[in-house]
Amino acid sequence: MRRTPTTVTVGDQITTRLITFGLTTAARELVTRFVQADQPSALPLLLEILDLEAQERHERRITRLRRASKLPPGKTFGTLDEGRLPPALVRRLQELAGGDFLDEATNVLAFGLPGVGKSHAMCAVGHALIERGRAVLFMPTYSLVQELLAAKRDLDLPRALRKLDQFDVLILDDVGYIQQSPEEAEILFTLLAERYERRSVFITSNLMFAQWDRIFRDQMATAAAIDRLVHHSVLLEFEVPSFRTEHASRRGKASRAAASTA
């Protein structure tokens, strides 16, 4: 039987869906069998059901990814005060939310003083990437370093690093916020070297690169770490006032005004 153009289009979509589901035999046989049985009119309904299955699978995957990410649930683009950020920076964040940079294992490095919104912005991008089906992990740098140190002491560091490989993006929050011991600096360097040109790293830090010798304590290690990070990277500078400082200032003014009125 000659197939109409409509049947070919719907049939191709059905086959694609079945391949995506890993149902290779059904993908090979189903459309052909329906056409041979003179039932091509049933194919649009079948495609609709498969689309529902695809949507539910996507939603379940997003739920699993979000739970595994450890991202703060409230730090999304919906709650990010974009009015405080330069328009060019906001546009760059929105571009990153598309996720194209992940295919080249590009890193994103966010610098600025404490309280300027670096962590919130990186988390917002992380949430957007999860919506696109990408695996993200958010960790305070100090906490992750301690976990890897424990794995090293248990002779389990290679397995711990492989486990981190399942994440397309690793968000290391507050790099350099706490002074690190030589052993901690070595673990951090090992992690960065392991992901180099393989997986993306997001970093937030209040220390510019010129101050990173405070982290690695050694000029050679510092230079090597920076070299790996910036080779494929996007640099974001949050040159805005601290949100927490502004909030405290406004609250203080309101309190003084209320006291004056009283």
TrEMBL record:
<dbReference type="InterPro" id="IPR003593">
    <property type="entry name" value="AAA+_ATPase"/>
</dbReference>
<keyword id="KW-0067">ATP-binding</keyword>
<comment type="similarity">
    <text>Belongs to the IS21/IS1162 putative ATP-binding protein family.</text>
</comment>
<keyword id="KW-0547">Nucleotide-binding</keyword>
<dbReference type="InterPro" id="IPR002611">
    <property type="entry name" value="IstB_ATP-bd"/>
</dbReference>
<dbReference type="InterPro" id="IPR047661">
    <property type="entry name" value="IstB"/>
</dbReference>
<dbReference type="InterPro" id="IPR028350">
    <property type="entry name" value="DNAC/IstB-like"/>
</dbReference>
<dbReference type="GO" id="GO:0005524">
    <property type="term" value="F:ATP binding"/>
</dbReference>
<dbReference type="Pfam" id="PF01695">
    <property type="entry name" value="IstB_IS21"/>
</dbReference>
<dbReference type="InterPro" id="IPR027417">
    <property type="entry name" value="P-loop_NTPase"/>
</dbReference>
<dbReference type="GO" id="GO:0006260">
    <property type="term" value="P:DNA replication"/>
</dbReference>
<feature type="domain" description="AAA+ ATPase">
    <location>
        <begin position="104"/>
        <end position="236"/>
    </location>
</feature>
<protein>
    <submittedName>
        <fullName>Transposase</fullName>
    </submittedName>
</protein>
